Amino acid sequence: MVPAGGVAEEGRHCWVHDPPGAPGTWPGLLVEWRRRQDGWQGRVVYTVPRPHGPVLVEAWLPAARLEPQ
User: Fold this and answer.
1) The total number of structural domains that make up the chain
2) Which domain holds residue 64?
3) pLDDT of the chain along its 69 residues, tens only?
4) At 52, phi and psi to the nearest 5?
5) How far is CA 62 from CA 4, 17, 50, 54, in A?
């Protein structure tokens, strides 16, 4: 899912695997990519259930935690 040849895949649906504080797999939306010294990261938004209703999360996660949907 990492951009090939520098071509971004923003606005793409993806699965978010085991984000911090929310174990499991969640449907998400990839917003943008960035390249860091330790590899690619994607900025994603996804929702997780909480006791008082779902919470919208926005986070930068390693590409290994993101899977195309």
Assistant:
1) 1
2) 28-69
3) 666 555 555 689 999 999 999 999 999 999 999 999 999 999 999 999 999 999 999 999 999 999 988
4) -105, 20
5) 16, 10, 24, 23
Has residue 4 been placed in a domain? no
Let me know how many helices (H) and strands (E) the chain has, helices first.
0, 5
Q: Is residue 17 situated within a structural domain?
A: no
What CA–CA distances, in Å, run from 34 to 4, 11, 44, 49? 13, 14, 12, 28
Residue 10 lies in a domain: no
> Among all chains, which residue has been given the structure tokens 């939306």?
29
